Amino acid sequence: MALVVQKYGGSSVADAERIRRVAERIVNTKKQGNDVVVVVSAM
Fold this sequence. Notes:
This protein is an alpha+beta fold. The protein is 37% helix and 28% strand. The chain has one domain (3-33).
C-alpha cells in the first residue's frame, strides 16, 4: 500500500462536473489499495 498525494486547484474544481471527476480519481486510487491525501488549493 502506498501513500498517494493528489493536489487539485483552480480549473480542476471549477464546476460540479470537474469536482465529480476529481472524486472519481480519488475513489479509484483508494480502490487500488492506496492511502490518499488530497490537497485542494483553490475553490
